[in-house]
Amino acid sequence: MSSGWSADFSYNYFRRILEAIRVNFNPHLLSQAPRIEPAGGRPKIIVRHDVDVSLRHALRMAEIENAFGICATYMFIPNSLLYCLEDSTSRDVLRQLISMGHEIGLHFDVSNEVRSPDCEVSQVESQIDAAARQIESITGMPVQSISFHRPLQQFLRGPVIVCGRTNAYSGQLMNWYMSDSKGCWREGEPLPRLTRPEKPLLQLLIHPIWWGEKHGLPEDSLQEFFEGETRGKPSEFVRAFDGALASTVPAVRRRDVQGIPHSNQIGQSRGMP
Ligand SMILES: [Zn+2]
Hints:
By secondary structure, this protein is an alpha/beta fold. It is 33% helix and 15% strand. The chain folds into 2 domains: 5-210, Alpha-Beta Barrel (TIM Barrel); 217-273, no CATH class. The protein contains 7 helices and 9 strands, in the order αββαβαβαββββαβαα. Strand 3 (73-76), helix 3 and strand 4 (103-109) form a beta-alpha-beta unit.
């Protein structure tokens, strides 16, 4: 992370990404993927956001995209430990995203009880349907796309449609894939690739929590979020929230645990907050 660009998860860098997209690509929503004809014309792009942690961060990115005339697909976890889609603030965020033309999709986490190398999609279909219906009951619109949180290896490069919805991890959408997972662009700096597209269809995955007005390291971004959400709250809440954060984003640990032991029992605080 020593070079200038790689440390840049600021909104200004995001704006440069969006400008490159605007100039070089035709953006599509994830739900449109089965109907995209990659060959011919400008390269196509699907910008997808997995909202693991914070609706506030998601809304900020949606507003910036809107200023560039770009629509993206935002995936939400209905039974998240960190946010409640049913509360009025969340409903308002969803409403604003939809009004800007963004798509609302399902970010689905296969539960620890079912997770195994042998688990097949068919085993979780009814849970996927129930989770999608939860979002639909809030937005009043069909959920047409799904991405898996902590995707199982066997789910990668799967079919285009899963449970009647566009599958973000389908083979055709992973031929060219760039992601900021864990607050790091594994494939290298995105901007040069966006400026000189090499393939006809790109899926760009962004996690809003890693981004801010100023760049921050992922552990610092989590820390700032944690402090904002737990300030002035009772210690039981803080402890539960800490466990929820650790189990939702297991790969990155916030900077300072403030003397609160991290839960080693992932999922211990399920249902909170
Ligand atoms: Zn996720």
